[in-house]
Design a protein that fits this description.
The chain is an alpha/beta fold. The protein is built from 11 helices and 13 strands. The model has no long low-confidence stretch (mean pLDDT 96).
């Protein structure tokens, strides 16, 4: 189907909790150290939402309210909200529905999308299709996760990785030479055994046994996931460059999923990208899953210029992975 419109990101925003959980804090909880964590991940601290009455919808709503204020538009102008998350407030209603109620976007519809750490890219492609077809004029994509709610803080392999946060973007139509130009998204379901939350779904509903066995927390086979992530994220980033006849000198910014500094470095090397062109904030926020890429865009917004060639790349549980090539549509 041919596009009626081109779609671009026209505003970005983010929100993270104030409370920090440092590597030294974790060293007092489990057998680890600042040196061990930093060497293996690049993470120094992460943000944690401690309020038990607030979750993913709250963080998302805060990010979106900031976005609307900055863009000077009303919530009633929003047509669609897509929430990329693996930590929904509830299985139903959708977190998107709760967000829409919270921000008072009475004319919007919405839904959740689950693709783990690649969720923002999957949602971005989905949302852009609504704009490109002319079905929607203003679409909000929010990547948000309260990972602290599914992390076992006695497991040093996983508790050092994840943090909480939300990042949101506004999608609108634009001139054809700008915006989202190409997308490659991939899934390999054989990865399910290496990175998952075992219980809580219809296959393994909550029981005393699942709670006792800690099956509602993140399970990760770290070595296997790392091996897949290094190759797949680097491969897909290189693939989208080749597909669009882009050389390393043509790329203004690489925006990688913030899972592990070594994975980010491997992707950049494969692309031939200088470190000065990579957005990295993993040291401050850790892995916020679907929120990492939009949080980078939020922090680097003033450094991006209209016409910049940008590659977004991610790898997540499923396995899922992908890359998006876009040309930045505005100056801050």
């Amino acid at each position: 189907m041919s596009k009626l419109h081109s779609c671009a990101i026209t505003a970005v925003s983010g929100w993270v909790p104030k409370e920090k959980l440092t590597n030294d804090d974790l060293a007092s909880m489990v057998d680890t150290s600042d040196e061990w964590i930093t060497t293996r991940t690049g993470i120094k601290e992460r943000r944690i939402l401690r309020d038990s009455e607030k979750a993913t919808a709250y963080m998302s709503s805060q990010a979106i309210k900031r976005l609307l204020k900055k863009r000077k538009i009303k919530a009633s102008e929003i047509d669609l909200v897509i929430c990329a998350t693996v930590t929904p407030d509830m299985l139903f209603p959708s977190t998107a529905a709760i967000i829409i109620e919270e921000i008072e976007a009475e004319n919007a519809f919405g839904f959740d999308l689950s693709a783990a750490c690649s969720g923002f890219l999957f949602a971005l492609k989905t949302g852009s299709s609504y704009v490109e077809s002319g079905a929607c004029k203003k679409v909000i994509i929010v990547g948000a996760d309260k990972m602290s709610s599914i992390v076992d803080y006695t497991d040093r392999q996983t508790c050092v990785i994840f943090g909480d946060g939300a990042g949101a973007v506004l999608l609108e139509s634009t001139k054809r030479q700008f915006g989202i130009l190409d997308t490659i998204l991939k899934v390999d379901g054989s990865g399910q055994k290496y990175l998952k939350q075992i219980a809580g779904g219809s296959l393994n509903p909550a029981t005393n046994k699942t709670v006792k066995n800690k099956e509602h927390f993140v399970f990760q086979d770290g070595k296997t996931v790392f091996k897949f992530a290094v190759s797949k994220m680097a491969d897909v980033a290189a693939e989208i460059m080749k597909k669009n006849s882009l050389e390393s000198k043509d790329i203004s910014w690489l925006v990688p999923h913030q899972a592990n500094l070594r994975i980010i470095d491997a992707t950049a090397r494969r692309m031939g990208i200088d470190n000065k062109k990579i957005m990295i904030n993993i040291q401050k926020y850790g892995n916020t899953t679907a929120a990492t890429i939009p949080l980078c865009l939020w922090e680097w917004e003033k450094k991006m210029k209209k016409g910049d060639n940008i590659i977004l790349a991610a790898f997540g549980g499923g396995f899922t992975w992908g890359a998006i090539y876009l040309k930045w549509a505005y100056n801050s």
